[in-house]
Amino acid sequence: MPPSYNNDILEKALWISLSAIHGLGSQTFCLLLKIFGSPANIYAATSQQLKEVVSAKIAAAIALGADEQVIAEACLWLSHPNNHLVTLADADYPKALLEITDPPPFLYAKGNLSLLNQASIAIVGSRNASVQGEKNAEAFAHDLCGYGLCIVSGLALGIDGAAHRGALKANGATIAVVGTGLDIVYPAKHRDLAHQIAERGLIISEFSLGTPSKPQNFPKRNRIISGLSMGCLVVEANLQSGSQITARMAAEQGREVFAMPGSIHSPMSKGCHQLIKQGAKLVDCLQDIVEDLGLNRLNLANVLETNDAENMANNASVLTSPLLTIMGFEPITLENLVRLSHLTVSEVSSMLMLLELEGKVSSLAGGQYQKIV
Q1: For residue range 53-68, what is the model confidence (pLDDT) as tens digits?
Q2: CA–CA separation, 174 vs 80, rounded Å?
Q3: Domains along the chain?
Q4: pLDDT band at residue 337, thresholds of 50, 70 and 90?
Q5: pTM to 2 decimals?
């Protein structure tokens, strides 16, 4: 093994070396860990001990010892700043994934590991989303961040990318679960978005470095997207889609499933309509999710504390963004805004005036206001 790396990196590299053994799946890996305790102990076990747990072929492969090339490559990657390997033995391992039937033994990660145990919601949908679908995903992601939720999605084109962008625009938290190795950005169009998420959020994968995009990878990664989350919102999806798989996995994992309805003539709505028929909660405003999950809006003072003082001085919209979060997407009266925000009539009226000037809110008949999407 490379002598220049510390013991922690070398120990993490053993996890990667063990996972590289052909035919050793995550469930068998976890079974070996349960019996022997650690990859180091697994490698130290006798062939006879191993054969009691795995096939003779896998036992023989383990008996050969750790793969030096894999170890060297893993150590090099782990030595770079912001690169991590989160294993089942680590406190940072997401507790939510321990609840699913097939948790990954470890996750490659880039970014802020604390997000792995933050309350989260998945937002998924079609890669070929409509313009309005992307706007809806971005707006819901933005506003759900106002309730302290981390937005989990898959970095794909369409709805996934819009959800990540919405979270970033809200200065909120977002996790991208990808179906490739972390040294590959797929799709290439999301290279800049991936870099932003790595810097301000978190990108994770269970796939080894160098793993390219393969169709069979994405259903597997979808169980992590749903597993990390309290619930899964499907914005647009056709009848045969990865989003349908994610929603099904979410239901099997005991997570809430939400679906946004659309036109009966759009193929991108048929998947959502099917989910609603099967018991998913129909969502046409933010409050549908907020009430179902029992969320509490972040305190206005806490929201403002997260913004730099200079930005607050230069951008009046910072002061009004909590109001936008409360408004959701349906018309709402001044009285209800006062009740939900716990602000005075004068304060809410001033905020609404600023929002109208910024083109973010329109006033309607009957003293109602509506967010402009």
Answers
A1: 999 999 999 999 988 9
A2: 22
A3: 1-79 (1.10.150), 113-293 (3.40.50.450), 301-371 (1.10.10.10)
A4: confident
A5: 0.79
